[in-house]
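Work Package 3 (structural annotation) set out to generate three-dimensional models for the target panel prioritized at the project kickoff. During this period the team completed the workflow that converts sequence records into discrete structure tokens, so that structures can be stored uniformly alongside our sequence database. As a representative example, we reproduce one entry of 141 residues exactly as it appears in the project archive.
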Amino acid sequence: MLRVSVICQGRLKEPYYIAACREYIKRLGAFCKAEVTELAEDGDVVGRIPRGAYVIALCVEGEKLSSPALAALLEKQANLGRSHICFLIGGSEGLPPAAKEASDLRLSMSDMTFPHHLARVMVLEQIYRALSINAGTKYHK
């Protein structure tokens, strides 16, 4: 079964972000084993990357993908035998250079700037959307 880890610098405090993340993690249970790891704002992201995982670092200078393209990327990695996907989300200062260097893909969600707490919700939703696309469900429509 696919495993998805989301490693985040900074802790959620706002109840609405916490509720949204819980909802998407619950939904993801139909497609994968998902987990979110919260670190301190300056926590060591690189040291928490699971061995053998395909690593996607969220950063403004990264590549932009559509939802279907992200779905295709996740499916391709699974077909290549990489059953663990790891997303890295930085804190208010972004990811440290070492985290970006440790990634297989640098991904940008937009040219716009979003609060990193909201980015966590958005990443979880996009993972859910991608896996829904791959499963052929109607969520993406």
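Strands lie at 3-9, 33-39, 54-64, 84-89, 105-108.
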